Amino acid sequence: MNSVIEHRTWRYATKQFDPSKKVSDQDLETLLEATRLSASSYGLQPYHIFVISDQETKEKLKPVSWNQSQITDASHLIVFANASDFGEELVDDFIENTSATRSIPSENLKGYSDFMKSKLVSLPSETKSNWTAKQAYLAFGNLMQAAAELKIDTCPMEGFEADKYNEILGLTEKNLNATVVLTIGYRSEEDATQHLPKVRKSTEELFTLI
Q1: pLDDT digit string (tens) for 136-171?
Q2: Predicted local distance difference test score (pLDDT) of residue 7
Q3: pLDDT band of 182, cuts 50, 70, 90
Q4: Helix, strand or coil for residue 45?
Q5: Which is nearest to 187 in space by CA: 21, 33, 51, 69?
Q6: Hey, where are the domains in the chain?
Q7: Of 40, 48, 83, 192, which sees the most CB atoms within 10 A?
Q8: Quick one: 3-86+126-206 is in which CATH superfamily?
Q9: What is the pLDDT of residue 199?
Q10: What is the dihedral of CA 183, 185, 188, 193, to 10 degrees?
Q11: Measured distance CA(66)–CA(185) in Å, rounded
């Protein structure tokens, strides 16, 4: 089995974490950098990511996460929050960053800037929020697979009250909304789920080759 498939076969949605095992600072740094390098539409990255290791904060979030033990037992809780709305500033910030990173005068990027603004800024607020959430999921998936390469366990979670997360973490005033959560750490030996075969559609059922 090649390593690409091995990593994805090894990974599963961990139900029980070992609270005594913590992700090292070095591995966390690698995970965050892998996430930072994720693809996003136009490269705009219209989201923010909260990395929570503080136990008191995790305890506050557990009751609004269906009391799932992963929230408090995992080493870190990663909250992906999409931009609820945006204006021209989203594109302007990206253009400024591009200009500085690539040593290109910002006026040379005006055509691209105007193009992005024409496609994005006039969208309805709900459409913008849906789009930014999709971008957050791209980074979310990338983090989950990077963790598998480091043999760090994860559990993707949508079972939480987003409005309560927004309140506890102060997201609303930052124009952010909790989109999806990923707990990371190391599986407990008592987690029986790790021994179960993956249940997925067959290749024939899932793919159509044209």
Answers
A1: 999 999 999 999 999 999 999 999 999 999 999 999
A2: 96
A3: very high
A4: coil
A5: 21
A6: 3-86+126-206, 87-120
A7: 83
A8: NADH Oxidase (3.40.109.10)
A9: 96
A10: 50
A11: 19
